[in-house]
Amino acid sequence: MRALVCVAKACHYTGGWTNGLDVRRSDFITLLGGAAIARPHPAHAQAPALPVVGLMGGTSAAEAGKSIAAFRQGLRDTGYVEGQNVAIEYRWAEGRYDRLPTLAAELVSRPVAVLVTTGGDVGALAATRATATIPIVFIAGGDPVRLGLAASADHPGGNATGVEMFMSVLPAKRLQLLHGLIPRGGPIGLLVNPKNPNFERNTRDLKEAAQGLRREVEIFQASTVDEIDAAFVAMAERKLPGILVNTDPFYLSQRHRLAELAARHALPAIYSLREHVDAGGLISYGASIVEAYRQAGTYAGRILKGEKPADMPVLQPTQFEMVINLRTAKKLGLDIPPRVLAVAYEVIE
User: Fold this and answer.
1) 199-212 and 171-181 helices, crossing angle to 10°
2) How far apart are CA 12 and CA 34, in angstroms?
3) How far apart are CA 314 and CA 312, in angstroms?
4) Neighbours of 315 (CB within 10 A)
């Protein structure tokens, strides 16, 4: 597994003629003295501009607090401290995919020395379409080669590299985990965002995985807050034994609402990121988004030092987490088997 990047203004005096008379030597010396006094001292010369890293996120600054701290740590690991020797320009999509291309264009026009995009596959694609020259560091859920972000994982070859989160291959594992937790049979609900570029492939893969478990999957689509509310009402009416919430930046931005709705309708739910469980969700399994931000920060720092994205392998997760919220499990009347608790990365009690 690949493991993990004034000049002081010169004053001069031009002598000349004044009213047809030579400037007197004493006046000339006085003027020269004044010029010397006016010349800025080198210590007060304008400081060089800091290199700027543009960071474009799919959620919001408030929701990405821990992740941003990890990104800054990655920069510090390579010798860069925000406000001291590097500046960071932030742009947030607030869970709206349609804003990402505009945000990418804004940062490219800034311009920035490195463009970091954490808005999933849509954000990564928006960044690469906005510039073919500015170095890009992405956090993507899908295969970067299949998405066209890199020629290969080992040698990206272009101006973009980053971190692959394996979001497109883990839903089947989450489905298997949920299948073992819910006490009764029946179809499992799958909540997906039809605007997500992995929508069709994820639903197809999950249907195939459900067949292997001899279980059915019912698809519920939601790309707005109102559609999320309607989807949960529909799932509750169907009396589903459990649901799988697919990976999506918009769903991450709505994680508190999703957890509240799952609790209100007594629906055991599994998610991709621990942030959902911190918000009150039942269980999550997936790569650490906080660690991915740290890795992205390290890559951004290395690029500022002169490395080229074309030669920097796409990183893979170094940490996978199963996080369980026992308080939520008790509210749902769900017993988590000891064998599952034993392998959990963290149990919230």
Assistant:
1) 40
2) 10
3) 7
4) 24
Strands (E) in the chain, as ranges, are 17-18, 21-22, 52-57, 87-92, 114-117, 136-140, 160-164, 188-192, 217-221, 243-245, 269-271, 283-287, 320-325, 346-348
Residue 243: both structure tokens together: 């649901």
Classify strands 283-287 and 320-325 as parallel, antiparallel or unpaired: antiparallel
Contacts of 301 (CB under 8 A, 6+ apart): 5, 74, 75, 77, 78, 79, 80
DSSP string, 98-152: GGHHHHHHHHHHS--SEEEE-SHHHHHHHHHHH-SSS-EEEEESS-TTTTTS-S-
Q: Same CATH topology for 52-165+289-311 and 171-288+320-348?
A: yes
Per the structure block, which two tokens stand in for 66? 């821990």
The DSSP H or E segment spanning 296 is helix 289-304
Q: Is 88 helix (H, G, I), strand (E, B) or coil?
A: strand
Q: 52-165+289-311 maps to which CATH number? A: 3.40.50.2300
Look up residue 335 and give its two tokens.
Answer: 């017993």
Q: CA nearest 121: which of 141, 103, 148, 93?
A: 141
Where exactly are the structural domains of the chain? Answer: 6-48, 52-165+289-311, 171-288+320-348
4-42 pLDDT, tens per residue?
A: 433 333 334 334 333 433 444 344 334 334 444 444 444
Q: Which amino acid is at 35?
A: A
* Residues 316, 162 contacting (CB under 8 angstroms): no
CATH architecture of 171-288+320-348: 3-Layer(aba) Sandwich (3.40)
Model pLDDT for residues 108-135, shown as the tens digit of each residue: 999 999 999 998 888 999 999 999 999 9
> Is 246 in contact with 228 (CB distance < 8 Å)?
no
The dihedral sign for the CA sequence 164, 70, 178, 96: negative
The whole-model pTM stands at: 0.79
